[in-house]
Amino acid sequence: MTGSVAQASAAAAPASPRGGPAPFSPRIAAGLAGVLIAVLVSGFNEHVTDIDMTDIRGALGIGHDEGTWLTALYEAFQVSAMAFAPWCAVTFSLRRFTIAMVGLFALLAAAAPVMPDLPSLYILRAIQGFAGGALPPMLMTVALRYLPPKGKIYGLGAYALTATCGPNLATPLAALCFEYFGWRAVFWEAIPLSIVSMLLVFYGLPQDPLRLERFRQFDWRGLLLGFPAICMLVIGLMQGDRLDWFRSPLICHLIVAGIFLFTMFLLNEWFQPLPFFRIQMLRSRDLSFSLIAVATVLVLAVANVDVPSTYLAEVRGYRPLQVAPMALVVAMPQLLALPLVSTLCNIRRVDCRWVLAGGLLLMGASAYGGSLVTSDWFRGNFYLLQAFQVFGQPMAIIPILMLATMKLAPTDGPFVSGMFNMVKGFANAIAAGLISFLETWREHTHSNVLLDHYGASRFMLSGLNAGPSDLATFAQSVRAQALVLTTADIDLVMIGIAAALFLLIPVLPTRVYPPASASIPTPAAR
């Protein structure tokens, strides 16, 4: 079984004319840049229906409930694609598969604003989500396969860029497109960069041969179990709060059936000769920890974007374009912070586990500052807190990527890429479900408490003479104060999540060294 897996996976390695690995060159660097651009564009488009949903709903004439399905379907198919894309890249070749997915992504972006009806738009966004989700595993694969040892950490830094900088750039790009070019441009913004990406990938990446014989061992059972399982779980998480979680029969069926099918999928992968996931690799403490850690850190990163944005929109009445500078404070400096953190982690004497610990401390400090929010805060009050994230996020993500990849055998890359990216995608759905749940729960709790304390006194003492306008003003004030307290509560929960992961660092992961020092004898790692 191991021999067949190794033989099939080895086919993914690019070959030079002499049969060895293709040497790194400016041409391959251009191909890597093309894949990076494609992944960033996919990340931007993922957040389109989050950032400008109110305006898109108005343009399409749909309600809030219908709009949420645009986001949920895109996310579900995106996460599913992350699990199965590495197998497709090995079979059809990395260059062919990447160009095909980017081309499909751009074509669907062009068609999105002219769909004749809402069901057609649902189908389009689902397929576009699949195409976009197939791209992040390609970036990790390119970085691990083509970069020389001294550059692998910087390749992982480029991958980290898509998880930290990319989501923060999505807000200003979507806001600018809508404000100056209309709602259709929010979808069309992906097209120019997608074309650039395809040209760079076509020019830069070596062409691997087709491996269609792999279909003889295709894991059909795994696909039929895993794909619907992942979609069910993601949709359940994304729609859970809106439908009141397990009080909804739909959410119950999605979550229960999703967990059952996913369990069966994992059991199937254990016994498959050519699986999508090699479950036996989870015996590695470093890989198991990295999967837990990337999910945790991305929940913290999503909260850092969503919670202040919700506060500014709901309490202060900011438009997306007015929130954009706050996102840019995190996104733009990371173009410098990521290479600096990569350089730090590339030093043999530096233990990446404690770089991760430092990143968690910075992210926890940002959340602690956010927990002190009051109703007087405006955009400027968040800048210092966002500055903690500039170094905190790269210091967390890059060590996690090192722990996941530095001890890999060449044949293990596609399996780890699938697992890692699927968990990364799940983290976004988990963050959305968790934050929505906390917002609803804590807002209702605080609203009830505030009404109990102040409602009776304000109106009973006035002889119940308050008119409708007074009641509306009072209700708005109560809701605003409840949102402020809810924002503080969510930040306190994020502190607890960061602390829990921090306590795992001395227990689970072992010491790993940068690949540039692989030839140097290493002392026994803990």
Automatic annotation (TrEMBL):
InterPro entries: MFS, MFS_dom, MFS_trans_sf. SUPFAM superfamilies: MFS general substrate transporter (SSF103473). The chain crosses the membrane at residues 28-48, 97-116, 122-144, 156-181, 187-206, 218-239, 245-267, 287-305, 325-347, 354-371, 415-438, 492-509. Keywords: Membrane, Transmembrane, Transmembrane helix, Transport. Its main location: membrane. GO terms for cellular component: membrane. It is a multi-pass membrane protein. The lineage of its organism: Bacteria, Pseudomonadati, Pseudomonadota, Alphaproteobacteria, Rhodospirillales. This is DHA2 family multidrug resistance protein. GO terms for molecular function: transmembrane transporter activity. It comes from Nitrospirillum amazonense. Residues 1-20 are annotated as: Disordered. Residues 31-481 form the Major facilitator superfamily (MFS) profile domain. Pfam families: MFS_1. It is found in: Membrane.
